[in-house]
Structures are given as structure tokens and as C-alpha cells.
Amino acid sequence: METSETTAISDLWEMLQQGPRRTLAQAAVDEFGKRGFHATTTRHIAERIGMSPAALYIHYPSKADLLFTIAKIGHEAVLNESLAAVEGISDHHERVLSFVRTFTAWHAVNHLLARVIQYELHSLQPDHLKEIAAIRRRTADFAAEEFRHLVSDTSKLRMRTVACLSLSIDVARWYVPGKSPAPEELGAEYAQLVIAMLRS
Amino acid sequence: METSETTAISDLWEMLQQGPRRTLAQAAVDEFGKRGFHATTTRHIAERIGMSPAALYIHYPSKADLLFTIAKIGHEAVLNESLAAVEGISDHHERVLSFVRTFTAWHAVNHLLARVIQYELHSLQPDHLKEIAAIRRRTADFAAEEFRHLVSDTSKLRMRTVACLSLSIDVARWYVPGKSPAPEELGAEYAQLVIAMLRS
DNA sequence: GTCTATAATACGATAGAC
DNA sequence: GTCTATCGTATTATAGAC
């Protein structure tokens, strides 16, 4: 079928059926990412897609719940893409290279979404944060397990893992499409830097 | 004189005379850093120091101006400490080590202030942002000049500079006092990682 | 399901007493 | 210089027509 190639790789928004619920979430990502959650009003989101502010509350119980939905989709997407990146690769060195390439490129391509999921954790309600934190732990644990094979001094694994993930996550802060290097190029370069950090 | 030892190293808040203006700024750093600028109200800041919300407007023309004052102090502090860190050192390798140690430790010690100056740039007014951007350029230019001597491939200097600064800046996002490594320890470790990144 | 209109509240900032 | 009281506005969310 003609659409198989675009649906083979998991769509970021597959959790949401296409329709106003997805359109609203995508508009909210752009607004939250550019201006921050609290600086963004329901009017900003609604105006961007030509709807009234009230339309939001047909598809989401609250603005806070819209943020939670976005955070969940984003965190699950980056985790799933990271897991998929190492699938079928046996060499430890190559697995780390592929993971870091993918993880870094994801934060460049989806830098607005990445800003929301990385810098708006404090805007989540406590119960929402608890669920998101569980996904984040799975991602961090996966990375540590991959990095473990390249770090000789085990006592440094934890700090090195934090540092290597941190390097890629911060891409979301400074990345400017068009001005910054292409996501694949950046991913390849960062993969080399992470190898250097782990082996040092 | 007895106070010479504490005043020899430049005080972060030396730009502000001690008094309500400084107290307000310090309280605002804690609140902005923990909850974000737009999520923080003038009541939050005032309550923290036992004043009324109206007191803020005696010492600052607006909440936006309070943010600008904080941003200016923070950016000038991290720049000045970075410049001081390499003063009198001639060896390029040692200069980079000292700079990264200081720059990283600063973002750990002052992680709440660092969050404000790194993640609230979009909350600044255009004219304020312009002035802040000039200070940021000086810091980035200084770092690139220091790193230049350790990067053999000149075409990679720009991207490596972004990456190395990025690594230390992101400390502000995840650092938790007591739980995370001590600032000096983290700085020393990160200095080694930056060397590995630059030389790779 | 979407709109207009609006309720209820919270916010930044000011007025005026002390 | 600081307070209490409050103004004007903006915000989240709801009510009710279509």
C-alpha cells in the first residue's frame, strides 16, 4: 500500500487519532515550545488553528491535561526511537553510535517538542509528573546499560551517563533550523563526542 | 581588614547595594528558578521576604525589569568568573581546564540563577534581550578563543564550542544540591570530558 | 462539535494613608 | 519606604445557542 513507508516508522502522534485533538496538540507544542507553558494562553493555541478558545475544552479537560498529553507522547516517542535505533545491532560501539545519533537528531528535529518535555516538567501536576518520571527513568536506564560497555571505570558510569544524555538534550535549547547543522550531521558529530567522553 | 577575604572574590550581587532591592532580586531568583518567570507572581516573591506585592514597585518599575536586572547580573557574573579563571595561566591546556571547571561549577552552585538566565531569555523584552545577547556573545567568543588552541580541525571549532558550553550549561537543568556531585568535583570531571571532546 | 458570551478568578500595577 | 485596598485587565473554564 502507498502509505506503508510513512507509517512504518512510528508516527510521533500515532497515539492521537487525526482530528481536532491532534491538531490542538500540535499547535500547543509550537506555542508551548516557543513561549513556555504559562506564557501561552488558550487563545494563542486556538487562534493558530482558527478555532475558539472554548474548542480546546471539548477535546481536553484542561490546559494542564493538554500539556500532560504532549509530555507523554514526546517522552514515549524519544524512548521508542532510541530502542529501535539499536535493534539488531550486536556490537556495543555501534549500538552507542546509533543510539546517540538518533537521540540527538530527535532533539534537533523536534526541538520545540523537546523543549516542552525537558523544560516544562515543573509545570506538570504532581500525578502527571509521576507518570512522566517513570518513562524518563526507563530512557536513562536504557542509556546507562548501553554506555556501560564503553566505560571502564564503573564508578564513573552514572555521571558519564548524565553528561552524555545532557549534551544531546541541551540541543533543544539552542537549535535553530536552517542556521544550526542538519540533524543527521549533528547526530553523527555528537555520537563521536560521546564515544570520546565515555572512553576518556 | 576582616572582610577582605569575602569581598576579594567578586560578589554576585555587587551591582546591587544591600537592601530591599537586592533582597527582592535574590527572592525572585529562587522563585523564577523553581517555577519559571510567568508562573511566578509578584505575590510569591513578596511573601517569601515578608513584604507586600506593592513593595516590589518601589524598587523596580515592573516585574519584567526585575527579570532583566537578574539576567544582567547573572550573565556578567559568569563571564567575569570565566575571565578570572584563566588569568595568569599561560598553558592552553591548563587555561581550558580552569575555565571549564569554573564555568561548570558556577552553573551547579548557582543553578537556580542559571536556569533563569539560560531558560528565560524568551521572557525578556526585545530591548532587554538585545543587551543580554551582547554579553552572551562575549562569553561564547571567549570560550571559542580558548578552545581554538586544542581543536586541530578548525572547521569543527564552532560546533565543538557550542557542544562544550552546552554540556556545562545543561547542569542547571538537572542539578540537585545534596544529591548531585559537589560543584568542584563536577567541574573537574567535566573539564576532563571537554578536553576529550576537543582533542577527539 | 463549535461558536458567542460570560462567569470566576488571578494577575500586574497603582492610589493614598501612614 | 511600606502598607492596605483596589483598579483594570487577562486568564481559565463554563453555559447555552446553533
UniProtKB/TrEMBL annotation, chains A, B:
Pfam assignment, any one: TetR_C_24
Keyword DNA-binding: yes
Keywords assigned: DNA-binding
Record carries keyword DNA-binding: yes
Annotation: DNA-binding region: 41-60
Superkingdom in the source lineage: Bacteria
Name of this chain's protein: TetR family transcriptional regulator
